[in-house]
Amino acid sequence: MITHDGTSVPRLSEPWDPNGTEWLTLAWDEDVxxxxxxxxxxxxxxxxxxxxxxxxxxSVTDCDNNxxxxxxxxxxxxxxxxxxxxxxxxxxxxxxxxxxxxxRIRIKxx
Length: 110
Prior knowledge:
The protein has one helix and six strands. The chain is mainly β.
């Protein structure tokens, strides 16, 4: 899982395969505990990136068997073949707070 420290946009540890379609998942558990339920979610994508499908406020278990109860997921693909890109999930909560969480993705050069 990606850790956000509030001072910089983290980067995925593995490069993105430009020939694949993969899920990007961001957890909002701490923010839901503070601001209430997720009422809306949208994804801000760079040009040449495609949102193929998304899930809002779902439970996800990672490969270390940690479960996160409030995740937003997007199934992404891209036609980009190189570069570093920022993907953002914009979320509104029941207390009217709106927050963005972003991640940098580097394309795997083939």
